[in-house]
Design goal:
10 strands, Cytochrome p450, 8% strand, binds protoporphyrin IX containing FE, 15 helices, two-stranded antiparallel sheet, alpha+beta
Length: 407
């Protein structure tokens, strides 16, 4: 049995460069005990086959109250919030009912209908970028694009969007617990008021559709409605920022792949799948716990243990993908786990793919000389992994900033 002080810590160094740690952990077996931030012991699954199987395994529960009880007192963070009891943190039959309603509301607003608006937002943002000094594409492009799209879809008025960005950042970054609690209180008060307003004056948006569903007997309760709105806003925003940022970084580091994509834009959908596999937006799937002993490889996860499933590690597993550490936008072996697997498979995957394609496609067309700062014709070295900052989160794999030269 490993001693606590022998366990790998998912610390700051891991967040900045997880690949070496994953390679080492996977060499020791498909699942290992690790220390999550705060020194909390958990199990981490790193092989593709086991990650895929366990994402769909009912012996691993996502029930928020069960997860909360397994954290040491005072350490459960977001699981203490009344907002935590949303669809992604629930098991069947509650999950089944909520997911049916979410699918129904999302299907009514088909993704293809959103294309012209996303293109318009992307073009407006690109038109406003300065072409001289390095520009941070996260703050100047990915963030406003993704937040405008999800807020438009849900019906969050434009004046409230900067608040929403600040709250959302608090939920997925390493910030003090009181900052998270303040953000939770604010977002809950805000969404309660917004859904009440939509009840009185519905408009053409997803939140109004959900409010309508919530008026029908046996459907969504008002508090479930607020939690669903919260989940859609948070799940649909930071992840998409990260897809755009990580995808662009992957291309900028691989000029050959960038040229290939520029010469044949029909490769774009496949390129997005490769970005999701190669440098996906989420380190790990959201928290699960074992309700009974679960054998994995030669090891057994005991009952009542917190379990993280590494999507990044699974997507670079040599046993599943040929040359997994190579970025190849023409790759023909689909099946990455960046959107999860099983009943919690991402409800917004079609929208995320469309946003990624439009955001990256439009940027490449508009700026033919896009490059990392420094480079052959400028003093200084091209930006390398050590100079780029990944946000201090074990959940999100996203850059703090992505400075580029546009021309
Ligand atoms: C590239 C962007 C995105 C990525 C990588 C992503 C990834 C994921 C993953 C991995 C899960 C499952 C987590 C688990 O099983 O623990 C998930 C669930 C979910 N995602 Fe996404 N997501 C993205 C964008 C979006 C968007 C744009 C929306 C909203 C429109 C969205 C809404 C949801 C919802 C509602 C769930 C919960 C599904 C359930 O519990 O049944 N996501 N996402």
């Amino acid at each position: 049995m490993q001693e606590m002080n022998e366990l790998t810590a998912l610390d700051r160094e891991f967040v900045q460069d997880p690949w070496a740690v994953y390679r080492r952990l996977r060499a020791d077996g498909p699942v290992q005990r690790v220390l999550a931030p705060g020194g909390i012991p958990m199990w981490l699954v790193t092989s593709y086959a086991d990650a895929q199987a366990l994402l769909a395994d009912p012996r691993l529960s996502k029930d928020h109250a069960g997860v909360r009880e397994l954290f040491p007192p005072g350490e459960a963070g977001p699981y203490n919030s009344p907002l935590a009891a949303h669809m992604l943190n629930s098991d069947p039959p509650a999950h089944t009912r909520l997911r049916r309603l979410a699918n129904q509301a999302l299907a009514a607003r088909t993704v293809s209908r959103l294309r012209p608006r996303i293109e318009q937002v992307a073009d407006e943002l690109l038109g406003g970028l300065p072409s001289g000094p390095p520009v941070d594409l996260i703050e100047a492009y990915a963030v406003p694009l993704a937040s405008t799209v999800i807020c438009d879809l849900l019906g969050v008025p434009a004046v409230d969007r900067s608040n929403f960005r600040a709250w959302s950042k608090a939920f997925v970054s390493a910030v003090p617990p009181e900052v998270v609690r303040d953000a939770e209180r604010s977002v809950m008060a805000y969404l309660t008021a917004l859904t009440d307003a939509k009840r009185v004056t519905p408009s053409d948006d997803l939140l109004s559709d959900l409010v309508h569903i919530s008026g029908q007997p046996g459907q969504l309760w008002p508090d479930e409605l607020v939690r669903m709105a919260f989940l859609l806003l948070v799940a649909g925003f930071e992840t998409t920022v990260s897809l755009i940022g990580n995808g662009l970084l992957s291309l900028l580091r691989h000029p050959g792949q960038m040229s290939l994509l520029r010469s044949d834009p029909s490769l774009l959908p496949g390129a997005i799948e490769e970005f999701l596999r190669y440098e996906g937006p989420l380190h790990v799937a959201t928290m699960r716990f074992s309700t009974e002993p679960v054998p994995v490889g030669g090891t057994e996860i005991p009952a009542g243990a917190l379990v993280m499933i590494s999507l990044l590690a699974a997507n670079r597993d040599e046993a599943r993908f040929t040359d997994p550490h190579v970025l190849d936008i023409t790759r023909q072996d689909p099946g990455h786990l960046a959107f999860g697997h099983g009943i919690h498979y991402c409800a917004g995957a079609p929208l995320a793919r469309l946003e990624g394609q439009i955001a990256i496609g439009r940027l490449l067309t508009r700026f033919p000389a896009l490059a990392l700062p420094g480079g052959p014709d400028e003093p200084g070295e091209p930006a390398e992994p050590g100079e780029l900052h990944w946000r201090g989160s074990v959940l999100m794999h996203s850059l703090s900033s992505l400075p580029v030269r546009l021309a």
